[in-house]
Amino acid sequence: MSNDVVVALDVGGTGMKCALVRPDGTVHHAERHPTLAARGPEAVTANILDIAAGLADRARADGLTPVAAGVAVPGVVDEETGTAVWSSNVGFRDVPLRALVSDRLGVPAALGHDVRVGGMAEARLGAGRAERHVLFIAIGTGIAAAHVVDGKAFAGAHGAAGEVGHVIVRPGGPPCGCGARGCLESVASASAVGRRYVELSGVPGVTASDVVARAAAGEELAKSVWTEAVEAFADGLLTAQALYDAGIVVLGGGLAESGEALLAPLRIALDARITFHRMPRIVRAALGDTAGCLGAALLALDTLEAPS
């Protein structure tokens, strides 16, 4: 077993994080590549297969044996059939990625949703490892979540579980990309925070991290925009806690990089809203942007352990 590794790829809209990972979760080798999404889904698929094959070759050159592969992708993923059903930023439409990777490498493969596998990694290897019931929420351009119990993330009947970004927290509020108005991600995602500040200030190009820095420096408008986002997030999290009863909420993604500037007021706002539910611990993710790649590796290792 000591020479075994799995090939792991986390495919994002702009870049891929790739690694050879040992069964105990340690990374033997890591590399990053551009996704080349602008070239279209066929080119992205070919790129994924070439990189995966290159990693397998690298493993063999290092005297290791690639025994499985795991791939994480954004969008709608059918994990049972191993199909990348739909992705807006990569362009996948019903791509049988698991079978393609398995055929190319000659090993078993697994395909997972990027946020769900990131949640698995945080639950097993990261900030949630002491808890059985973990809710991982990624806050970036959008907001998505993974409900992980005993290290397993639940996909739901249609592969769309955990879409807390589309809980409506401000009825009739800002339009969301999904077609509804007032969704959590239309108010409290990183892109929404930046957009709101630009709208109110007329200053172009301000990002969520700029808003956090300006709020910390005492600027009133930034403090107001940030408080608005945190309050909305607490409303969404209250609904999530009513549904999932998590022991710990792990926040990842770009907005979580603001650390206690987000966590401290969020804890206060959620505590003020909670009635009979238990208050979860709220912490920042520990694995950073490697969570998806490590989660893809865990998915591959789980495939080996699953009864055939």
Task: Annotate the secondary structure layout.
Elements: E1 4-11, E2 15-21, E3 27-34, H1 41-61, E4 65-73, E5 76-78, E6 83-86, E7 93-95, H2 97-105, E8 109-113, H3 114-125, E9 133-139, E10 143-149, E11 152-153, H4 184-188, H5 190-201, H6 208-216, H7 220-244, E12 248-252, H8 260-273, E13 281-284, H9 291-305
InterPro entries: ATPase_NBD (IPR043129), ROK (IPR000600)
Protein name: Sugar kinase
Keywords: Kinase, Transferase
- Weakly predicted, low-confidence segments: none
The overall pLDDT, averaged over residues, is 95
Query: Which value, in Å, is the CA radius of gyration?
Result: 20 Å
DSSP summary, beta strand count: 13
The biggest sheet, with number of strands, parallel, antiparallel or mixed sense and barrel status, is: 5 strands, mixed
Total helices: the number is 9
The span between the termini is 19 Å
- Placed side by side, the strands forming the largest sheet appear as 3-2-1-4-8
What overall geometry do the principal axes of the alpha carbons give? globular
**Element pattern in H and E:** EEEHEEEEHEHEEEHHHHEHEH
Strand content: 15-25%
Helix content: 25-40%
Structural class: alpha/beta
